[in-house]
Amino acid sequence: MTTASTAPVPEGRPIRAGVVGIGWAGQQHMAAYHEAPGVELVAIAGKEEDVRAELAEQYGIADTYADWEAMIARGDLDVVSVAVPTFLHAPIAIGALKAGAHVLSEKPIARTGAEGQTMVDAAREAGRILEVVFNHRRRGDIEAIRSAVEDGTIGRPYHARAMWLRRAGIPALGSWFTNAQASGGGPLVDLGVHVLDWTLHIMGEPRVTAVSAVTHAELGPRGLGGSTGTKSGTSSAYEVEDLATVLLRLEGGGSIVLETSWATHRSTPDQFGITLYGTDGGADLNVVDYAPSGELTLYTGDGETAQDTVIEAPAGRGHGAVVERFLEHVRDPQSWSEHDGTVGLRRARIVDAAYASAAAGREIALGEDLEIIGEEA
């Protein structure tokens, strides 16, 4: 392995940041960098010239680029955020890492675990940070449940039901989102990776030993459940699922049930949350219409007397908190090797196993590194 420099940004010089992607997600990164002390947002890249010009004026960005390659080739960026369609995550992240930048990529890490592995390998080779944006774990209500696990209020968590459900929320029919090659999948890889992340995070990162999944595509292929608005990328037929349900077996006997949908005949508005059962208590979080803080109740008691506590959790800071933590790690060279994208890779491998299970119609066993055991579907 090549030994890369672990020198921090020189004292007195701001961290130079660049963002690839000028849509909603990219703009969240831009706002966070703009507000962060000791950081200078110096470059952005995106196809829409008018949007680039508007953002450059808004944030005082000196240089804008139509092509990400040109932005990275300048060679002076300390950090690069990747906020583009999933099929571009790997090439952009790897290019930035090779150029010496630390990388913060939107979720999922990549279309597949194998592709994600190339990104992790590049981060290790370059001696740079690779992190994936899991902003939902930074919500105040999610953090409150995690704290209840950490302080023993809930005891040992042994089962969770978690979901993110939409009635008519296919991002854009015919866009890269609904193209299997470009996206890697439907709501399971798009929304489900968030659900998977916050659930495993809350439960203390138990190892997943087996996955059983079923996927459905009933509405999307008929042109139902989403807009036909355009998004950057290819024009495509509907090639992915619109509903997925997954059972995860955990080391030690625990279990998780996940359900994610882009389009289902259900109540509106959109809803996500988690119900957690532990040996000494439980928790239930229900977030409706993307409220900044959901309805959260902790359930405790001695088995005879119930003690239910409604928690008024503060709103989280989303991307702002994610970028802030990323910059803390960038400023601490001794921690760089701990942030090589492994968390995002492990999530991707579990999603891979879920799709393999759905295709094969059977449970898929996973090894220590979440590799699929036996013949892959």
Automatic annotation (TrEMBL):
Superkingdom of the organism of origin: Bacteria
Keyword hit for Oxidoreductase: yes
Occurrences of domain Gfo/Idh/MocA-like oxidoreductase N-terminal (ranges): 15-132
InterPro entries: Gfo/Idh/MocA-like_OxRdtase_N (IPR000683), Gfo/Idh/MocA_oxidrdct_glycsds (IPR050463), GFO_IDH_MocA-like_dom (IPR055170), NAD(P)-bd_dom_sf (IPR036291)
Keywords, alphabetical: NAD, Oxidoreductase
Pfam families named in the record: GFO_IDH_MocA, GFO_IDH_MocA_C3
GO molecular function: nucleotide binding; oxidoreductase activity
GFO/IDH/MocA-like oxidoreductase domain: residues covered: 143-282
PANTHER family: BCDNA.GH03377
Name of the protein in its database record: Oxidoreductase
Species of the source: Brachybacterium phenoliresistens
